[in-house]
Amino acid sequence: MSKKSSSVFDKFIPLGTIQRRNLQKKQIKELTVEGINAIQAIQSLKPDPEAYELKENDKRTALEINEKKKLEPLIEILIEWINYELSDKRVIVKDLEQDLYDGQILQMLIEKLSGLKLTGDSRLNLGELSQKQNLKQILNFINQTMEINPIMSKWKVEDIYDKDLIAILHLLVAIVKFFDVKISLPENITVKVIIIQKKKTLEKVTVIEKITGINASKDIKKDRDAFDTLFEHAPDKLELVKNSLLTFMRKHLGKLRIEIESLENLDDGVLLILLMGLLEDFYIPDFAYVSKPSNYDEKLTNCKFLFDLIDEVCRQEKNCHPEDIANGDLKSILRILYLLFSNYKDRD
Question: In this protein, which residues make up the domain named Calponin-homology (CH) (predicted)?
Answer without folding.
Answer: 72-180, 239-345
